[in-house]
Amino acid sequence: MTVINVEKGDITKSPSDAIVVNLFEGVASPEGGTGAIDKALGGAISELIKEKEITGKLGESTLIHTLGKIPAKRILIMGLGKREKFSTSVVRSISGHAARYLRQKGIKHAASITHGAGIGQLDTSDSAQAIAEGVTLGLYEFKNYQSKKSESSSNEKSLESFTLIEQDEGRISALKAGVVRGSVISTSALLARNLVNEPANVVNPVKMAQVASAMAQEAGIPIEILGREDLMQNEMGAMLAVSAGSANEPQLIIMEYLGDPENPENNIALVGKGITFDSGGISIKPSASMWEMKGDMSGGASVIGAMKGISELKPKINVYGVVPAVENMPSGTAQRPGDIIRAMNGKTIEVDNTDAEGRLILADAISYIRHTKNVRRVVDIATLTGAIVIALGHVASGVMGTSQTLVDAVLSASKSTDEKMWQLPLFEEYKRQNHSDYADVKNTGGRPAGSITAALFIGEFTEGVEWAHLDIAGTFLSEKTTGHMIKGATGVPTRTLIKLVEDLAQTS
Ligand code: BES
Ligand code: MN
Ligand code: ZN
């Protein structure tokens, strides 16, 4: 892992292999740290701007050699784009890009200015946090199974340190705090990415529970794991029905962080779908892209990641992390379309389609945590519907819920993390689509508004609590590597869950 440091000093005197500076689009003479470097180089950067070889366009990266004019060997100039559109999201993204660029050049020790902080465009700590996140998330690789060494594990190409250099003593503590936050939060997201990228023959329900246990032990938080016998004792018929076709035992994972033990009612339950593989069951999926369903536990992975970050950042609030981990397989013991099952809360469900399994396991996981704790708020996170991909593509996750306050808190958190989200309505009129002729409710609502009817099904089990639901079926994977995103698992929405919990701790 790349170590991210903060050091007091003059950036023009840093003896690093490369220094990262920046440029806004349309600026003729650079300011701040970039200006200082430009001056030390006798105007080399301004010259490149004059010649239109550097424009400051977002994501532009230019590497120049200093030829002994300053102690650092190279300068990397990152384009920040338009000044009006500048934000911590830009910093996070260009930092990921810069870190990969440096690693690819074989650079080991880099220094950087804190983008936007010196010129007062961004809060110092926020910018440092975004840099730490961008570097950590952007350098991520999943190469556990390739015999050819990864870029970072071969000694030649690994960025060993990334140091923020600041002259003003008064800003050092804010920078350090930002770096720590950014490192904690992004490392939590990487835990989620790893779980999602691992194949389903490795990450089965028992393995997921083991990873959660290891995390909980390291974080010093309690964890409880229920197996098939326990689920039977609790009459969790919905979760058991989904697991019925699999040789892998289901696990209900309950992690607990008590940050406000004197006020037990100041709490939230994060409930993440943990389908370790979704074949569809008897309503089997087509084989094209079926491999992506190894990531159908992304909601659960983000909850495990978030619990790690929360227990390190220690907000004053109580958080239950709940992950029903189940494999959805077809077999002679699998549930069938048309089956009628009884969920833990007593409601009967007609299983119209065994591929609508996420809502079934979430129903029982929510009932269980409500039954065992006095839960005030529930946020569930699930790769729930293909319909959300049709509605919002791969850009934004869907948000729905019965508590607008909680939905607004989720949306607000997502703005600062840049894990984009958009609300869909839960109008009463949609409910009739889940009507069953044989049971209390049916597990499908037809093609129209498929994400909404899926959410409304979960809503049958959240009556009486403040509830929000995140459908991440379009955002759990990235098709390409760009900025702080790496092709494959995104770790979404781990960072937003941590921010949400911190925000709620501040307001309640
Ligand atoms: N896990 C899938 C949803 C999904 C689709 C996640 C694409 C990620 C990418 C979910 O269990 C599912 O199969 N949903 C069905 C529901 C339908 C049968 C009502 C769907 O969306 O087609
Ligand atoms: Mn499914
Ligand atoms: Zn699924």
Q: What Rg is obtained from the alpha carbons, in whole angstroms?
A: 24 Å
Please summarize the sheet with the most strands.
9 strands, mixed
Overall pLDDT confidence: 97
Number of helices: 14
Low-confidence stretches: none
β content, as a range?
15-25%
Helix content: 25-40%
Terminus-to-terminus distance:
36 Å
Question: How many strand units?
Answer: 20
- Gross morphology is elongated
Query: What structural class is derived from the secondary structure elements?
Result: alpha/beta
Commentary on this structure:
With 508 residues, this protein is of the alpha/beta class. Helix content is 35%, strand content 20%. The protein has 14 helices and 20 strands. The chain has helices at residues 32-40, 44-50, 88-104, 124-138, 169-197, 205-219, 228-233, 237-243, 298-313, 358-372, 387-392, 404-417, 450-459, 494-507; strands at residues 3-8, 18-24, 61-65, 74-81, 109-112, 161-166, 223-226, 251-258, 267-272, 274-278, 318-328, 340-342, 348-350, 377-382, 397-401, 421-423, 441-442, 466-471, 477-478, 488-489. Strands 7, 8, 9, 10, 11, 14, 15, 16 and 18 form a nine-stranded mixed sheet that branches. Strands 1-6-5-2-4-3 form a six-stranded mixed sheet, sandwiched between helices. α4 (124-138) links the parallel β5 and β6 (161-166). α3 (88-104) packs across α4 (124-138) and α9 (298-313) crosses α14 (494-507). It is elongated, with a radius of gyration of 24 Å. The mean pLDDT is 97. Manganese (II) ion is lined by residues 278, 280, 355, 357.
